[in-house]
Structures are given as C-alpha cells and as structure tokens.
Amino acid sequence: MIMNSARTAFTSMLLALAREDQTLYAVATDSRGSVTLTDFAAELPNQFVECGIAEQNAIGISAGLANGGLRPFVCGPACFYSLRSAEQVKVDVGYSQMNVKIVGVSGGISYGALGATHHATQDIALMRAVAGLEIFLPSDAPQMAAMTRYLAASDAPAYIRMGRGAVPTIYQENAPFIPGKANCLNKGKDAAIIACGEMVYPALQAAAILAQEGLYVSVYDMHTLRPLDEEAILKAAETGFVVTAEEHSIHGGLGGAVAELLSQKRPTRMRILGLPDEKLYNGNSAQVLTHYGLTADGIAQTLRLER
What we know:
The protein is an alpha/beta fold. It is about 40% helix and about 20% strand. It has helices spanning about 5-20, 30-35, 40-45, 55-65, 80-85, 85-95, 125-130, 140-155, 200-210, 230-235, 255-265, 285-290, 295-305; strands at about 5, 25-30, 50, 70-75, 100-105, 135, 160, 165-170, 185, 190-195, 215-220, 225, 240-250, 270-275.
C-alpha cells in the first residue's frame, strides 16, 4: 500500500506551477510548517506572504492580491480559516467573487488530541452556506495534485479541505480530475456509499468486506461538494439505500447535501455517517474515528444492520 499526504502533494504541485507562473502566490499564517510550504517560501520568497497568526487578515490580503490580478492560495488549519475568518470568507471572497483559493489543512479531526479548538467539523457546512465558492475534498495525494492544477488555472473562488497525515493511494498519478463529476469507484446493486475526503478509502474497504458476504455496494467519491454531481447521487439512489460517510458533523456537510437533493427529487432510504451532534471525545484521529464508527468495519456494520 502506497501512503502519501495530500498536503505535500498540494505544495509540491503548487511550487512547480508557481515557478512558471509569477501570478501564483502562497499566503500563510505561521502555517508554512503545517501546510509544508517551507520549500515554496525559500525558493519563491517574492511569491510568498507570511501574515503571522492572523487568518482574518490573510483572507483580506488574499482578496486584495486577487483584486490586483494575482492568484493567491491562502493556506492554514481548516478550523481557523472556516470559523475565525467566516466574515472575511463571506464578504471578501464569496460576495466579492475574488479569485482566492482557501486551502484548509488538518480538516476534520486530524489534530486529534488537541481537541475541539482544533477540530474542523463545521467547515463544510459553513462554506456550503457561502454562495459562489467551489468546494473540494481530495481523497488522496494524486487527486490533490490534479486538483491543484485545476485550481491554479481556475478563476473561481474555492475552499479546499484536506487531512494532515499520509493516506492510502486510490488513484494513479496523473489520473483525470473533473470538478463537479463524482467518481464511481465500485459498482453494486444492493446499496451505495457516497463518501468524500479521507472517508473514501474506508468506504472502498467496507464494500470489499460486504462483497465477501454477498452484499454488493457501489462506492462514489464525491470529491466536489459544489458544484454537486446530482446525476451521480440520483444514480446511487437507484440501489434503494444510500449511506454517506464524511469526517464532518452530521449536519450541513456531504450527508446534508445528499439528503437535500434526494428529499426533493428522489426520496430514498439513507443514513448519514459522520461526527455526532455532541461534545466529541478527544484522542488521536484513529481513536476518535473508531469510536464513532468512521472506519471500514463501522461503515460495513451500518449497511449490515440497516440494509
């Protein structure tokens, strides 16, 4: 099994692209280490802006850079860019339609035992409520590299959320990435799992476990939450039972987006797997995910019990 982190794939690709395009900027908030931007800052100091621990300022500065024709990627912990900077994201980026790419690393519970202050479990709900933002959650390093190429060429504001550690590789290098087009990674007739981000690999494992038991499950990688691939969701609903899996609150994320669509266009039995509406337990991310059933075994058990 090949393991790589999405954040290193992102910064490696951004540096390669920025060498050829002087309009590409990286903006950080004392986060060059956590984002792995150290090489970028050292090699291209004139295309790097360090704001210190001031995420609200960083969003505003990035909007100003974009207004001057530059293409900034403002990078740091997802928990701070989503909540601490909510007003700036809403007004300076979304409302003003500035070409700013907001890159949230250590999404979900990547920071583990640092607890609720550093968990990013409401970020997708907030970003979905800001009109005009594209929203992406890469499932592995090759997909993040492909996303970065797209984002560097795109004029649309966007929020990109990734984890922190190395994750199993799902896609081959240079695999095509089509924004707004989910990838069906496994086909089954009995149920469907729609997953995003780092929940895609456990979803695939769950499908493999269930196939050995005679339950055949489709798996979709919903890497883009805006624009949402409605066609793929409606196709998944043809199985009669849909499970969504995400490292996010059960409110307002992928599950909410899928439920909103299906309730209006094709009412379907479904279950939203995510982090519950309660004060979360602390621990490393593996411990927390296991506790809340966000593992291959947990996803498989949900389908066994409810199918």
